[in-house]
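Demo today. Your pick:
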Amino acid sequence: MQAQARGLSTWARVAIVVVAAIALGATMGVIGGAAGFLLARTPPDAPSLPGSPSRPSVDAPRDPGSVAAIAEAVLPGVVSIAVDAADGSGTGSGFVLREDGYVVTNNHVVAGAADGAGSIDVVLADGRRVPATVVGRNISYDIAVLSIPVDGLRVLDVGDSDRVTVGDTVIAIGAPLGLDGTVTVGIVSALDRPVTTGEDADTSFISAIQTDAAINPGNSGGPLLDGAGRVIGVTSAIATLAQERGNIGLGFAIPVNAVRRIASEIIATGSSSTPIMGITLDTRFEGRGALIETVSLDGPAERAGLAPGDVITSLGGRPVADADELVVAIRDNSPGDTVTVVAERDGTSRDYRVTLGSRPDE
């Protein structure tokens, strides 16, 4: 599954690829790599070189702030997701949100098997494989909540994605290519990166956390952690060059503050809401900003004084270069939030105070 990276520079010709959970075809490469390792291994009776470090005991205590310690604490709360649908099977990742069996993942991981179209199993860290039910999905944010009949699960701590800073250390955990419990490390490369994934009715607009931590197909839905082991995002997409689908150091995660709101609504009601301004946009507009095409009668934009023909250049202090960036900026807020919108009309800029409305999503 591919979608155009309309929020990224076009000179690199990158395409945002939803990290499709397809492990098929990876097995031979993994087996070949393992065989090569076995052939090259040093015999157990080989003498040690002078000054060679001794291998630490697996029981040796780790620094509480180390990646090893964080991984050890967090891995029991990370799951793999196996999907069997009419259009094929695949694997993805997820993490435990509540000890009574609620799991968060990406919508695109489970969409093919939703609404009874297939089966979804969750594989726990201890190897148990249990059937899962879709509690609810939000296509706009690419989030889904599953329920499994298991209690006493290890719950991951949730952080605050608004406090994340470029350069922060991050840890991604998931099942790339079906390899459960894979841990990779990197930094936050950028914030508020507008990323559009999916196609047609399944399009998601993400105000993403960008990271260089290695992310590959199968990581989708897994947690992106901060240096203290708290979830700050849900891994959702990667960027690739041309037809390559592997990691090139450009991964994207949905900020956890949005995930927290959506998941809470889904658990409480089975559905969730998406913020709206009550406008349609002219996607053919080639100038800088987002051109309003129509305004909903008595909608948030009209009540604030916006009109067709206005060009929005900023929302909530965030610059808006095109229509996609405006949609992403809106969805970085919650329904009911009041934001300042800067728009140009007849060559003059004005500020408008818009209280965002909402619409149900799935």
Notes: The longest helix spans residues 27-40.
